Amino acid sequence: MPITVFIADDQAMVRQGFGALLSAQPDISVIGDAPNGKVAVAEVARLRPDVVLMDVRMPEMNGLDAARLILAAGGEPPVRVLMLTTFDIDDYVYEALSLGASGFMLKDAPAEELIRAVRVVADGQALLAPTVTRRLIADVTSRRATPRTRPAALDALTPREREVLELIARGLSNTEIAEKLFVAEQTVKTHVGKVLSKLDLRDRAQAVVLAYESGLVTPR
């Protein structure tokens, strides 16, 4: 089955351009688009795409509010949200990650990065552009007046699970973690699943946020 994608952006050229690019891929199908967050929420609820490309700034309802409603609705299989932004990365994207968005990418990224982004997010894998995402989170958390209370659930992690969480927060993929720890990738996937379950997190994006906010990982 192809990966189904929905595009929400107030610029028609962006919607059409991204739509044409993604539709040309044999494993991706663009099933709808919207010019604002309000329409996006209604259409995503109706169509249930695998991935939503969501612009941060849109009229009537911005991408952050739309992502909050889409992610709060839940459902199986889950709808994954990938935020789109311009060069002015800001706290909106950070908040989206906290809500459970799977990551973000810049609108002017190369075409192959957008295609890869959709495939990675659909598969529930690592954040997109991990070095950029990590830098954003580190910058925002370093400017916060008080750190987030360290969750007691962190103490329930085994030493290996804690190590895996730290590596996730550093932006490593499952493959890279497996290579670093000299274990099979399937073993890493098992550890990641246990980390998310014990910490009651939706996905890796929230794991990264928690690791930085709790002080488990500090900006380099």
Number of strands: 5
| Terminus-to-terminus distance | 41 Å
Along the chain, the helix and strand elements come as: EHEHEHEHEHHHHHH
* Average predicted local confidence, pLDDT: 85
Evaluate the radius of gyration: 17 Å
Major sheet strand order: 2-1-3-4-5
Name the helicity range: 40-55%
| Largest sheet data | 5 strands, parallel
Shape: globular
Q: What class, by secondary structure content? A: alpha/beta
Task: Kindly estimate the percentage of residues that lie in beta strands according to DSSP.
Answer: 5-15%
The residue ranges in which pLDDT falls below 50 over 5 or more consecutive positions are none
Describe the oligomeric state of these chains in a short phrase.
Answer: single chain
Q: What's the number of helices?
A: 10
What is the structure about, briefly put?
The chain is α/β, with parallel strands linked by helices and 220 residues long. The protein contains 10 helices and 5 strands, in the order E-H-E-H-E-H-E-H-E-H-H-H-H-H-H.
Report on the architecture of this protein.
By secondary structure, this protein is of the alpha/beta class. It is 50% helix and 13% strand. It has helices at 12-23, 37-47, 63-73, 91-99, 111-122, 130-142, 159-169, 174-181, 185-198, 204-213; strands at 3-8, 28-34, 51-55, 80-85, 103-106. Strand 3, helix 3 and strand 4 (80-85) form a beta-alpha-beta unit. Helix 6 (130-142) packs parallel to helix 10 (204-213). The protein is globular and about 50 Å long. The relative contact order is 0.11.
